[in-house]
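Title: Comparing notes on inverse folding

I've been comparing how different people in this forum approach sequence design from structure. To keep things fair, I'm posting one structure and asking everyone to reply with a full sequence. Here's the target:
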């Protein structure tokens, strides 16, 4: 087992990793930017090293500075969390070259699943259903027009190196395709320094359902059931839950089997997620694989009583997984509490938290790194924390969530709490009648 883990991340996920490491008797090193010097992950780690200025490029994306921090603290492993360098194969390779264990998959696995075209080809070979689309990158607008006719409108143009909804455009007819192609190409180049695009059939009325998987160094892979992430805005998730209200035992079995096939196809090592689009007829299609821990991992932890961070660390240290699949025993819902104004198009609201009161009680969990007096910097993701409720049934979990949100007081910045309160009372949401397009018609009162 590792003696000391450096956490190459910030905020609530860094604090989450520190907690598990402490339970396992592993020393931790926090790295931080000048903007994060007062963050809780810095205060709770055994050691802390400042690695640069407030911008991500100056600190959390600065590989030489992170490696220097590993060297001066004698860390024998790095946990990348999510975002930043978590799916950066170059960083994983540099760790490998310096004898530091990267807690995650190998650089080759990251490369195979990080590029959307390569991932899709791998899934086709593995027999995993994929969304109908073209093979390879789109060379031109004319090529895009020809392919769109073959697939049939509506289609979606996507950045091959994409994520977070960047470099993505839905096209409903040929008159829209040239603008969509050019806009997506420009956004992809700006966001990922890679303007490669591909095209797929646009799945209407879809659900976004993902399967949590774990694989060890000895070829065993298991799944830990599903999460429904359909409540999202501009491809950014706001609410996640497990089990999905759309799921059936038969569909869970088929999707779980497909997810294991997907992970096994690259001999996956670590904890990861296979994301699917599921249409209204319960046909499902591979979308992408996240080769890292996800924001919403706590939802799965609550319904199967399983510490996914501990599992990541144990797998990286060479321990075997049980190899058995897990089914949800309870119902859990997560609301992302962001420093955003839901009454003003979810505009970011950085600033100082002047008053903070967090909810408690049975079935309530909060993963957060903030406190009264904490200043939310404008340089990073606006997430303040995650509120998770768990109960015997979905209805009970929603009722607990509404009660917990009603107790949650954050002053000094705008937050998404009012949005979540209204969502928990929405009749369609409570009935489970929603798709990824749900928030396009949802109006704040």
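Reply #1:
Here's my take.
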């Amino acid at each position: 087992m590792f003696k000391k883990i450096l956490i190459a991340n910030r905020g609530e996920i860094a604090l989450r990793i520190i907690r598990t490491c402490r339970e396992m008797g592993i020393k931790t090193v926090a790295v931080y930017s000048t903007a994060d010097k007062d963050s809780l992950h810095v205060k709770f780690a055994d050691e802390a090293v400042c690695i640069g200025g407030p911008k991500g490029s100056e600190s959390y994306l600065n590989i030489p500075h992170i490696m220097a921090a590993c060297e001066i603290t004698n860390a024998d492993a790095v946990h990348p969390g999510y975002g930043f360098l978590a799916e950066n194969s170059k960083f994983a390779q540099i760790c490998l070259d310096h004898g530091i264990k990267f807690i995650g998959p190998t650089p080759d696995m990251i490369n195979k699943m990080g590029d959307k075209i390569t991932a899709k080809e791998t899934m086709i070979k593995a027999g995993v259903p994929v969304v109908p689309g073209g093979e390879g990158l789109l060379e031109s607008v004319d090529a895009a027009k020809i392919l769109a006719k073959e697939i049939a409108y509506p289609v979606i143009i996507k950045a091959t190196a994409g994520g977070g909804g960047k470099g993505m455009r839905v096209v409903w007819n040929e008159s829209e395709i040239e603008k969509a192609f050019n806009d997506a190409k420009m956004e992809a180049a700006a966001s990922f320094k890679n303007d490669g695009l591909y095209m797929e059939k646009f799945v209407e009325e879809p659900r976004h359902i993902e399967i949590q998987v774990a694989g060890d160094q000895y070829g065993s892979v298991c799944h830990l059931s599903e999460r429904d992430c359909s409540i999202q805005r501009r491809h950014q998730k706001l609410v996640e839950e497990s089990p999905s209200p759309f799921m059936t035992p038969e569909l869970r079995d088929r999707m779980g089997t497909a997810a294991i096939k997907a992970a096994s196809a690259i001999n996956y090592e670590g904890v990861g997620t296979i994301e699917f689009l599921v249409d209204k007829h319960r046909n499902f299609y591979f979308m992408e694989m996240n080769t890292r821990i996800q924001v919403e991992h706590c939802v799965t932890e609550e319904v199967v009583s399983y510490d996914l961070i501990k599992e990541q660390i144990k797998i990286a240290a060479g321990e075997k997984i049980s190899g058995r699949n897990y089914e949800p025993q309870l119902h859990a819902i997560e609301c992302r509490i962001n420093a955003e104004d839901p009454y003003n198009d979810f505009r970011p609201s950085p600033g100082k938290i002047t008053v903070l009161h967090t909810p408690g009680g049975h079935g309530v969990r909060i993963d957060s790194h903030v406190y009264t007096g904490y200043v939310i910097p404008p340089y990073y993701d606006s997430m303040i924390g995650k509120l998770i409720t768990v109960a015997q049934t979905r209805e009970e979990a929603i009722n607990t969530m509404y009660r917990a949100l009603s107790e949650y007081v954050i002053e000094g910045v705008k937050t998404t709490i009012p949005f979540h309160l209204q969502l928990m009372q929405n009749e369609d949401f409570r009935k489970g009648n929603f798709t990824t397009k749900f928030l396009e018609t949802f109006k704040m009162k």
